[in-house]
């Protein structure tokens, strides 16, 4: 069976993007940076999670952010208040970041800073529950967010992001008592898509669960550091 033109074009785009992602990852590995791709639908709480993360961990790690939005630098400006480098990328009509955009972002970062000084690069992707999961940017791990306000069925209706995630944060758990929502069912649906994903329940309002998220990040950074040390021995 012959592929349609659209199908062949999609495969070629993904292949080209994957090559760019591998190129980006090679830079991160050379610099000793761990890169995380943070993804969710709009309004799930990515930016406020990064605000809490920067407030808690900038004394422990040197962190930079690439902030993706279709328009404006509103979220980027929120994160700049934490005195970390924030590279804003406006994607226009594109509903996700891709490896070429992120390559431009890390080029800007490397122009102003020594990238080897950083421990962690957080890439906040465009709010979208579909496309970001299919376009790698060079990340070492994918972090997905799902708000309790989005319902229990989203992992089943939009499976790719949950299948690809290394860590899933169930956010806004403080709202659960006011909703007809079963968080255990959300977890069960996620596990159906991805049995091995780490699931962390958090509330940025009450701070519940945030320390578990911080510890996951600490382990990721320290594991990356250990690998770098081992490569030198």
From TrEMBL:
<feature type="domain" description="CobW/HypB/UreG nucleotide-binding">
    <location>
        <begin position="37"/>
        <end position="200"/>
    </location>
</feature>
<dbReference type="InterPro" id="IPR004392">
    <property type="entry name" value="Hyd_mat_HypB"/>
</dbReference>
<keyword id="KW-0533">Nickel</keyword>
<keyword id="KW-0479">Metal-binding</keyword>
<keyword id="KW-0342">GTP-binding</keyword>
<dbReference type="InterPro" id="IPR027417">
    <property type="entry name" value="P-loop_NTPase"/>
</dbReference>
<dbReference type="Pfam" id="PF02492">
    <property type="entry name" value="cobW"/>
</dbReference>
<comment type="similarity">
    <text>Belongs to the SIMIBI class G3E GTPase family. HypB/HupM subfamily.</text>
</comment>
<dbReference type="InterPro" id="IPR003495">
    <property type="entry name" value="CobW/HypB/UreG_nucleotide-bd"/>
</dbReference>
<keyword id="KW-0862">Zinc</keyword>
<protein>
    <submittedName>
        <fullName>Hydrogenase nickel incorporation protein HypB</fullName>
    </submittedName>
</protein>
<keyword id="KW-0378">Hydrolase</keyword>
<keyword id="KW-0547">Nucleotide-binding</keyword>
